[in-house]
Specification:
alpha+beta, Arc Repressor Mutant, subunit A, 3 strands
């Protein structure tokens, strides 16, 4: 299950980099490795093809050192998906970190929120 979560992060990370500049598979593998993700070309290229089929990425073939390299750029559809993902991530991360702050002994309860009473269920 955790692997599925990280695959989603990887897809968003790919869109993020493709929004900055044209990207190719091996460069993305190296970039993701910096973040602790170990992807082989056999895992990376199906993800890129899936994002291309979903119209989030557009492929452009370029000849580099006599070999064809497949570069991917983000599409308008991909930009919209990335913007939506960023908004949802921002909201989710805020909530998760807020919960983590409560676990660390600090409270995220607003000052105006009433405290719960233990015992007989009475409030003062």
């Amino acid at each position: 299950m955790v692997r599925g979560f990280f695959l989603g992060f990887i897809k968003i990370h790919i869109l993020h980099h493709a929004a900055e500049e044209a990207v190719y598979g091996l460069a993305l593998i190296s970039e993701l490795r910096r973040h602790g993700y170990e992807l082989s070309p056999g895992k990376m290229y199906p993800v890129l093809h899936e994002l291309e089929r979903a119209l989030y990425l557009r492929r452009v073939d370029r000849v580099v050192n006599g070999k064809v390299r497949k570069y991917y750029t983000i599409t308008r559809h991909g930009l919209a998906a990335l913007a939506d993902a960023r908004e949802k991530i921002r909201e989710l991360v805020g909530e998760l970190l807020e919960g983590a702050a409560g676990e660390a002994g600090t409270t995220s309860r607003p000052a105006s929120a009433p405290r719960r009473q233990r015992g007989r269920g009475r409030r003062e």
